[in-house]
Design the sequence.
């Protein structure tokens, strides 16, 4: 990837965070619970079936999102620049959150290239980057993956960039389904900033 294209990609990630927030009705980083989506499968969260790197099948909303605090990003193992940087950064986030990941915060990475990213490939990728327990890597059918990508707002306004896997949106979506509070930020953000955003979707009692 040339420098100008890389710069455009990084800029698009920052804009996408703001765009996703606007698309979901998020103001100042999180939504007014009264105006938030209810998370129903026929709303913003498609209830498609995904396969985990652990060999299990999950319904996206019922099994992964419902009543949980989650962090969701899109990637693929053959990605040139965005995914390695994002994964390395999110590994630091996971390390700082420690044993909260998999207990009261759940991390999900969904491959954009399910035809090549088999369960075995996803497991190898996790091992290479030192991903710890509680962070699930997932794959779905090509059609279901595209449905998730679009309905979750990981879309570039430039059709040419949007069609190129190498320039996919480098954003992590962070939410608390139980209270209908969601936010988004570039996956390249400082790990402490990402953790601050996680805190913004938690109940006040937890934050205090």
Sequence:
């Amino acid at each position: 990837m040339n420098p100008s294209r890389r710069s455009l990609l990084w800029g698009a990630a920052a804009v996408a965070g703001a765009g996703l927030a606007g698309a979901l009705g998020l103001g100042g980083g999180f939504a007014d619970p009264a105006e938030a989506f209810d998370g129903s499968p026929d709303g913003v969260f498609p209830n498609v079936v995904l396969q985990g790197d652990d060999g299990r099948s999950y319904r996206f909303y019922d099994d992964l999102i419902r009543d949980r605090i989650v962090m969701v990003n899109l990637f693929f193992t053959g990605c040139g620049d965005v995914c390695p940087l994002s994964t390395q950064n999110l590994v630091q986030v996971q390390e700082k959150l420690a044993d909260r990941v998999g207990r009261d915060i759940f991390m999900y990475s969904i491959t954009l290239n399910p035809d090549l990213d088999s369960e075995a490939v996803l497991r190898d990728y996790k091992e290479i980057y030192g991903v710890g327990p509680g962070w699930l890597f997932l794959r779905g059918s090509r059609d279901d993956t595209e449905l998730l990508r679009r309905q979750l707002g990981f879309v570039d306004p430039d059709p040419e960039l949007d069609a190129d896997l190498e320039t996919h949106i480098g954003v992590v979506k962070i939410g608390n389904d139980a209270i209908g509070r969601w936010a988004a930020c570039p996956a390249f953000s400082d790990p402490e900033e990402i953790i601050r955003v996680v805190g913004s979707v938690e109940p006040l009692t937890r934050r205090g």
